[in-house]
Design goal:
Distance between the termini: 24 Å
Number of strands: 8
Helix content: 40-55%
């Protein structure tokens, strides 16, 4: 499939960097390309990329700011469709359902290393109890109202109808996506 072939290009880049005596810090990318046109990565792409980056000692970071929180209809995170688990996940936007929030999820080992190195860090909004309540309420609603399943079911119908429109209108070049992460 195309995914491992595209991923092999990243492997070649990692190898090139290593051959020059440098180290790869990591790979950061959206789990599906939102601003690029709702492009779903081909199966096996992230797996191949993550293997190459981790093999060189780098971290794998998934940007789920726009695509996360069940929008794809297959799970809470769209990286799950690739069968990978990132070292770090960045989240935001839908995390607060309109309330300005963002967050980072990481492994215990990375968090502990961060804590032990004691870097100076400051965030005006960090630990705000209102924001914490909003974030928890969003997670509760996603679960209680089965919004991930709803995103899949509604998205399937929407995608079908968009493809009908594509057949009727030449100006629609492409339709794609998954769940309610769709684009024309």
């Amino acid at each position: 499939t195309a995914g491992p072939k595209y991923g092999a290009q990243v492997h070649d880049l990692v190898e090139n960097i290593s051959n020059r005596g440098a180290r790869v810090a990591g790979f950061m990318g959206e789990s599906a390309l939102s601003c690029g046109g709702q492009i779903i990565l081909p199966p096996g792409y992230l797996k191949t990329v993550y293997e190459a980056v981790r093999g060189a000692g780098g971290l794998c970071i998934s940007d789920e700011v726009q695509v996360g929180f069940g929008r794809c209809g297959t799970g809470l995170w769209i990286f799950q469709t690739q069968g990978v688990v990132p070292d770090i996940v960045t989240i935001g936007k839908s995390m607060g359902n309109g309330h300005p929030m963002a967050g980072v999820i990481t492994t215990r080992a990375i968090a502990e290393k961060y804590r032990l190195n004691r870097p100076e860090y400051f965030n005006t909004y960090g630990g705000n109890p209102v924001s914490m309540a909003v974030g928890l309420a969003v997670l509760d609603v996603i679960e209680e109202e089965c919004l991930i399943k709803h995103a899949k079911d509604t998205g399937d119908v929407f995608l079908e109808k968009l493809n009908l429109l594509k057949k009727q209108h030449e100006c629609i070049g492409d339709v794609g996506g998954i769940g309610l992460f769709l684009g024309i």
